[in-house]
Amino acid sequence: MGLRVQDFIPRPDAAFETFFRNITDFVIDNSTRWGHIPKDDVEILEEQFVQWNTAYTKTLVPHIPQLTAEKNRVRTTTERALRAFINRFLRWPPVTDLDRDKMGIRNWDTIRTPQEAPKTVPEIEADTSVIRQLSLRLRDFGSKHWAKPEHVHGMELTWGIRENRPEHVGALPHFETETANPIVLTFEEEERGKRVFFAARWINNTSQSGPWSDIESAFIP
């Protein structure tokens, strides 16, 4: 779950509730028009919103501290799932810039000239200096500068908390898509000390992707 300066997912719970509800309703209303999101994934999105809404609603009246802790746990889980859904299904055509505006999802800067598909592999540096946070910087493998290479518009990171290294990136469930360093993942207190595995690849402005990096790992500080 990436928390960034100018993150498009709002931090206050009330704003997150509105944001999540709006996206869920919009996806339900428009998934048939788009035609690329499996029905099961739409239903899972709706179920995740219900889980969040149920946990959040219980904290809007006088309540015991355990309900706040449960709301925070559900927020972490559902926000990660929502972010992965957005990055998997809502970043690319047939979803339009206008659709994203209506859902409150930040549009990337427009690039008029199509770029060629990336051919190089990112190198990832993990900064663990802040507790409950991993800050990941990407650069071309072997480069001396932390900058995207030519013909690259953004970066995709896939990651997951696991005990053992997966054999393939497909086993990593979460996705983050950004256009600039760093990609920052934040975690709950009870996740400290667990191991996060991650891999990254470059993407161009027409969603063509390059090869995945090696699967690397870091411990949550």
Structural descriptors:
221 residues; alpha+beta; Immunoglobulin-like; 2 domains; four-stranded antiparallel beta sheet; three-stranded antiparallel beta sheet; 4 helices; 7 strands; globular; disordered N terminus
Could you give a short description of this structure?
By secondary structure, this protein is α+β, with helices and mostly antiparallel strands. It has helices spanning 13-34, 39-57, 65-90, 97-103, and strands spanning 122-127, 133-140, 154-161, 174-178, 183-186, 195-203, 216-219. The strands form two sheets. The chain has a four-stranded antiparallel β-sheet with strand order 4-3-6-7. The protein has a three-stranded antiparallel β-sheet with strand order 1-2-5, with no helix packed on it.
